[in-house]
Amino acid sequence: MSENLQTRADAVMAHTYARYPLTLVKGEGVRLWDEAGREYTDFVSGIAVCSLGHSHPALTEALSRQAALLVHVSNLFYTEPQVKLAEWLVRKSFADKVFFCNSGAEANEAAIKLARKYGHGHKGPDCHHIVAMEKSFHGRTMATLTATGQEKIREGFSPVLEGFSHVPYGDLAALEQAVTENTCAVMLEPVQGEGGIRVPEAGYLEGVRRLCDEKGILLIFDEIQTGIGRTGKLFAYEHSGVAPDIMTLAKALGNGLPIGAMLAKDGVMASFTPGSHASTFGGTPLATAGALAVMETLEKEGLVERCAALGQYFKEKLEGLLCHPVAKEVRGLGLLIGIELACDGVPLVKAMMEKGFIINCVQGNTLRFVPPFIIEKEDIDAMIAALDGLLSEIHI
Predict the structure, then answer these.
(1) In the chain, what are the domains?
(2) Is 222 helix (H, G, I), strand (E, B) or coil?
(3) Strands 366-369 and 336-341
(4) Which residue is catalytic, options 117, 135, 233, 251?
(5) I need a surface site. Which of 189, 202, 289, 391 has the fewest CB within 10 A?
(6) pLDDT of residue 2
(7) Angle at which helices 285-300 and 80-92 pack, to 10 degrees?
(8) For residue 344, what pLDDT is reported?
């Protein structure tokens, strides 16, 4: 990275990211290039965002066409791209209605507000309590960091919002004990991403759904990371057949465009009336036209099915690395996969970057792999070979 650029950035930008000393200037497919012209294979895809890869022609064309027509008018008016995208999402999911916003945190914020509004309307003003999961991640706004089950995310921001409690992910008994007469919702990720790629045991989500139905409370699925094909199904809830009452999406929805969505059944979304929630930039013509192109491309090219098949191949290759004493466990669905290590994973991320592969580490010791769905087996094989060599050098 240019030392001059890093100095300039540090002088004018908030220091909220521990950035790698790498300036990326171009992307195409699963490849990225830095300012020196060095090539990298991308196994992070903008943190599970660029499922079509970089500079996909369908998205580029859709954005160019829409930018020449209409970029933004606010939600005081109807626009066709927004309606078309909402129709597509409703047709493909459990939901009846869609609220558009700009990010995953905003989608989760909308879900929290909707759950509380629903609780107030159906059970009274004391019905505002939400049970979330330990090790979860739901965002960085005040409401979503409160919902997040990681103390490090909340550190320094107290007092956080009232009305949230956390239980271990996968523990139905603990969840049942946490639910009170004032609980309006249970909020969880069908697969925990930032929490270390944790897939729930069979029957857990069914048990959560049953408990919510028995208690008359809402079930919120945060599919910011798992949604739009990442787990090998369009939505992760399809693996269990358990549909939520509210679902949140972002990340892969726009393949890099700032767009999020909160989906719900009619009877739930009815709690939002004009003036109860809004977003000036939510679902602009530009963002929704781009996202619709992404959805249509996923469908036309069979990329969700491809994600499922490649995910199984990738997982088997990673399991082959469990021969190394430092490698503990491989977890994941589709192309949301992690390998837990008995050591700090960050040095390995840096070492892999030196070898031309961009990977990621969560929870300090779990390497996360979320490549574009267009990744090839040859790319996976090359990355596995590089990681295999590094793991063989670690002795514990």
Answers:
(1) 3-55+302-391 (3.90.1150.10), 58-300 (3.40.640.10)
(2) strand
(3) antiparallel
(4) 251
(5) 202
(6) 61
(7) 40
(8) 95
Q: CA-to-CA distance for 268 and 256, rounded, in angstroms?
A: 29
Contacts of range 345-351, beta carbons closer than 8 Å, 24 or more positions apart: 348/387, 348/390, 348/391, 350/20, 351/390
| Tokens 């160019």 belong to residue | 64
Q: State the pLDDT at residue 6.
A: 87
Give the CB-side neighbour count of residue 151, counting CA atoms within 13 A. 0
> Catalytic one among 43, 99, 137, 272?
137
Is position 171 annotated as part of the catalytic site?
A: no
The pTM assigned to this predicted structure is 0.96
Residue 22 in tokens: 């790498």
Token pair for residue 199? 């897939």
119-137 pLDDT, tens digit each: 999 999 999 999 999 999 9
Q: d(Cα 369, Cα 383) in Å, to the nearest integer?
A: 11
Report pLDDT for 215. 97
In a 3-state reduction of DSSP, which class is residue 345?
coil
- The residue annotated as part of the active site, out of 42, 135, 222, 317, is 222
CB environment 348-377: b (16+ within 10 A), e (fewer):
bbebbbeeebbbbbbbebbbbbbbbbbbee
**Rounded distance between C-alpha atoms, residue 231 and residue 210, angstroms:** 23
Mean pLDDT by 10 residues, the chain (396 residues): 81 93 96 97 98 98 98 97 98 98 98 98 96 98 97 94 97 98 98 96 98 98 98 98 98 98 98 96 98 98 98 98 97 98 96 98 97 98 98 91
222 is catalytic: yes
208: Cβ–Cβ under 8 A, 6 or more apart, which residues? 172, 175, 186, 188, 219, 242
366: three-class secondary structure by DSSP: strand
Q: Is 251 marked active-site?
A: yes
What DSSP assignment string belongs to 274-341? TTSS--TTTT-HHHHHHHHHHHHHHHHTTHHHHHHHHHHHHHHHHHGGGGSTTEEEEEEETTEEEEEE
Please return the burial class of 181, using the count of CB atoms within 10 Å of its CB with bins 0-12, 13-18 and 19+.
exposed
Residues 1 and 172: their CA atoms lie apart, in Å, by 48
Q: Which amino acid is at 382?
A: A
